[in-house]
Write a structure and sequence with these properties.
Layout (H helix, E strand, L loop, with lengths): L3 E6 L4 H12 L4 E8 L7 E4 L2 E7 L10 E4 L3 H13 L3 E4 L28 E3 L3 H17 L1 E10 L6 H14 L3 H6 L32 H14 L5 E8 L6 E9 L5 H9 L4 E3 L7 H4 L5 E8 L7 E7 L3 H15 L1
Parallel strand pairs: 1-2, 1-5, 2-4, 5-6, 6-7, 8-9, 11-12
Antiparallel strand pairs: 3-4, 8-10, 10-13, 12-13
This protein binds NADP nicotinamide-adenine-dinucleotide phosphate.
């Protein structure tokens, strides 16, 4: 197939910018690139390897001619504009949660359930960044061993909430860093928070997302429902806790996994070493800082379960802006080429 007419919707955001650099880096065959954002950024120019592109106002956009649209401008924009792009003939790969659980919308982790994307026209959903990271390990392990349950705690970076959240973390670090005594004895002065209910700097917030059913957050429900859909295990048992940590980029997850076929860490390492997009580290512990800016999800600390034998405890961490969002969207677009 020849070059595609590609649109990035939400092009000025944390995910949108990463989409551009990934499209450029992977030599995606683009014959024309268009960029969309709000009226705040419309008219600004972005330098790309396909020439300077003027950002267009999504609200007054005409999507005619777009083949593939990568959406990352929030759920409300996806709900309103993705169907218009599809009506104009585009395949939309959507990063928001707007369509993920719609039965006729595939929810695709490239490398795990590619077959769902094949031949699809319309909207294809990109999973939530936390779920995506875990699926890179859980997917191949499930294919080999039959996953039955997961107890998962996430350690999610602030960039999962966009560019503004990184700015908030840094401003709070700047404000609190000179008051080491206050941080140690509790007399610290609240620097003020906009995006989080409590300061995120020098802290961990055990409540990532918004309150939803049964005392769980929407992020935690995404981990439950999206994992079930991606792996096609409607009765998968998932016990999620999502925590926001003062990390710029890189979502980590500690997971306790149980399988129909009991396994060992050695067998799991072999399975993951043969799986795409995941690297097992056995000589040192992979951290969020290690994951930032790279494509592969990193896995480590693969241990046997202590209570009931045959399961695994492990750690995975991945760049939430890359595999967690932009890279996976581009990989889905590549599956359609
Ligand atoms: N960050 C992650 O790790 C991650 C992972 C997976 C999925 N996602 C999803 O991706 C989406 C974007 O996330 P982000 O982190 O890139 O957020 P962000 O940094 O806040 O960027 C938001 C983008 O959306 C655009 N936008 C906002 N309101 C708009 C409007 N009314 N009309 C048109 N464009 C509008 C912004 O344009 P302006 O610059 O003009 O305001 C900007 O380009 C969200 O749906 C998020 O849930 C994020």
């Amino acid at each position: 197939m020849t070059g595609r007419n590609v649109a990035i919707v939400g092009a000025t955001g944390a995910v949108g910018r990463t989409m551009l650099s990934i499209l450029e880096g992977r030599n995606f065959d683009v014959s024309n690139l268009r960029m969309f954002a709000s009226s705040r950024s419309a008219g600004s120019t972005v330098e790309t390897r396909w020439g300077d592109v003027v950002v267009e106002d999504l609200a007054i956009s005409d999507p005619t001619g777009v083949d593939v649209a990568l959406f990352s401008a929030g759920g409300a924009r996806s709900k309103e504009f993705a169907p218009r792009f599809v009506d104009a003939g585009a395949v939309v790969i959507d990063n928001s949660s707007a369509f993920r659980m719609e039965p006729d919308v595939p929810l695709v982790v490239a490398g795990v359930n590619d077959e769902y994307a094949n031949g699809h026209s319309g909207i294809i959903a990109n999973p939530n960044c936390t779920t995506m990271t875990l699926m890179m390990a859980a997917g191949p392990l499930h294919a080999a061993l039959g996953l039955t349950s997961m107890v998962v705690s996430s350690y999610q970076s602030v960039s999962g909430m966009g560019k503004a959240a990184v700015d908030e973390l840094i401003a709070q670090v700047d404000s609190l860093r000179s008051d080491v005594d206050g941080l140690m004895d509790g007399s610290w002065v609240d620097p003020g928070s906009v995006l989080y209910p409590r300061p995120i700097a020098f802290n961990a917030l055990p409540f990532a997302g918004n309150e939803a059913e049964s005392g769980y957050t929407d992020e935690e429900w995404k981990l439950v429902n999206e994992s079930r859909k991606i792996l096609s295990i409607p009765d998968l048992l998932v016990e999620p806790t999502c925590v926001r940590v003062p990390v710029a980029v890189g979502h980590g997850l500690s997971a306790s996994l149980r399988f129909a076929s009991p396994t060992t860490p050695e067998a799991a390492i072999e399975i993951l070493n043969n799986a795409p997009g995941i690297e097992v580290w056995t000589d040192k512990v992979p951290t969020a800082l290690d994951s930032a800016g790279i494509d592969d999800v990193l896995a480590g600390r693969i241990r046997p379960t202590l209570g009931e034998p045959g399961g695994l405890n492990l750690w995975v961490v991945g760049d939430n802006l890359r595999k967690g969002a932009a890279l996976n969207a581009v990989q889905i677009a590549e599956l359609l080429q």
